[in-house]
Specification:
Helix content is 0%, strand content 46%. The protein is mainly beta and 209 residues long.
Length: 209
């Protein structure tokens, strides 16, 4: 009789009954999979945003479309001098025992989330070291050039830190054909034509740093 120091799920037997074994010979595997330890690396530039208890989301190829959540458990105190990355260990609850040791998982770590305004990238008109957008005034049906301060970027969208308020409409197409004070006509749906500027509302989104 062999007793283990913890309870868990046994794997496939690696020896047969009656076989003489030596000390250190693998007999069977025993895994406690009530929770899974997930190890991954994070580039050192994001080190300031790491902390134990930070939420993490992970996906596995075995369960497409599903997300498993957990928290950061510990952070390696040393940075790999070759990859310039730090090793992080997270713990994911696994009450249904669907996750297995050795699985390859894609992780998403959220650091310092905040809610801010975003606009489509094509709405920006760069000039020297400044960024401008054309804001539509529905009363006068004209557009006004306005200086904005940009922040982080997500695919297709840019964070606007100053210069706009939620709900304002900005020109996203045809910015090269208009100038400050021009009168424009808003078209919607299939009636919109290429010669007319297209508008989009500023939206609120969570920017991830």
């Amino acid at each position: 009789m062999i007793r283990a120091p913890f309870s868990g799920v046994v794997g496939l037997r690696q020896v047969s009954e009656g076989l003489i074994v030596q000390a250190g010979t693998p007999i069977i595997t025993l895994s406690d999979i009530s929770r899974i330890k997930l190890d991954f690396t994070v580039p050192e530039v994001f080190l300031s945003g790491l902390a134990p208890g930070q939420p993490i989301a992970a996906r596995a190829a075995a369960y497409p479309g599903e997300t498993f959540t957990g928290t950061v458990d510990s952070i390696d105190p040393q940075i790999d001098p070759v990859t310039r990355a730090v090793s992080v260990r997270a713990v994911l609850p696994n009450a249904q025992k669907r996750l297995k040791p050795g699985m390859l998982m894609l992780t998403t770590l959220t650091s310092k989330p905040r809610t801010s305004l975003t606009v489509p990238e094509q709405a920006l008109s760069p000039r020297l070291d400044q960024q401008f957008v054309y804001v539509y005034d529905p009363k006068s049906e004209t557009v006004r050039e306005r200086t904005v301060t940009t922040g982080t970027r997500q695919p297709g969208y840019v964070e606007i830190q100053t210069g706009l308020t939620a709900g304002e409409q900005v020109v996203v197409e045809g910015t090269l054909k208009i100038s400050d004070g021009d009168k424009v006509r808003v078209l919607s749906g299939k009636s919109q034509i290429a010669e007319e500027p297209a508008l989009a509302n500023t939206t609120s989104a969570t920017a991830i740093q």
